[in-house]
Amino acid sequence: MHLPSQVPSRYPNWPAAFLWISAALSLSVQAASPSELPSGSAPSASRGQEFFTKNHGREWSCASCHGVVPTQIGKHASTGKSIGPLAPAFNAERFTDAAKTEKWFRRNCNDVVGRECTPAEKADVLNWLKSLKT
């Protein structure tokens, strides 16, 4: 895993937390029923990117607020509120808290897909986000 050259001192354990969340999501993918998983159960960065940028029949895609490549500041589609970069290499605060990560996946998946994301979808998106490097 590539770490940013300078991680703020107030988040000294962010790499460990990110690894923990990634591992937890990977385990949930393994625990998912076979019908929830695409062929091959390993998380896929390419599927994650496709899921992130695709419109799922709703008004917004993930990219509507976070940008097609979420390495810069985004902007909420309806409120206009600034959103920090989503890719962890560009924002040391991302994915450091499992409860917060699940909360935002739940909210954003409901807005984008109209339901909660499956464990496989979450793992794919996280796999793609962690592949984005500075």
Task: Provide a descriptive summary of the structure in words.
This protein is an all-alpha fold and 134 residues long. The chain has a domain at 61-134: Cytochrome Bc1 Complex, Chain D, domain 2, CATH 1.10.760.10. Helix content is 45%, strand content 3%. Strands 1-2 form a two-stranded antiparallel sheet. Strand 1 (74-75) and strand 2 form a beta hairpin. Helix 1 packs antiparallel against helix 5 and helix 2 crosses helix 5 (119-131). It is globular and about 35 Å long. Residues 1-11 and 26-35 have low confidence and may be disordered.
Quick summary:
This protein is mainly α and 134 residues long. The chain has five helices and two strands, in the order αααββαα.
Supply database-style keywords.
134 residues; mainly alpha; Cytochrome Bc1 Complex, Chain D, domain 2; two-stranded antiparallel sheet; 2 strands; 3% strand; disordered N terminus
CATH class placement of one domain: Mainly Alpha
Give the strand line-up of the largest sheet.
Answer: 1-2
What's the N-to-C terminus distance? 12 Å
Helix count from the secondary structure assignment: 5
The secondary structure category is mainly alpha
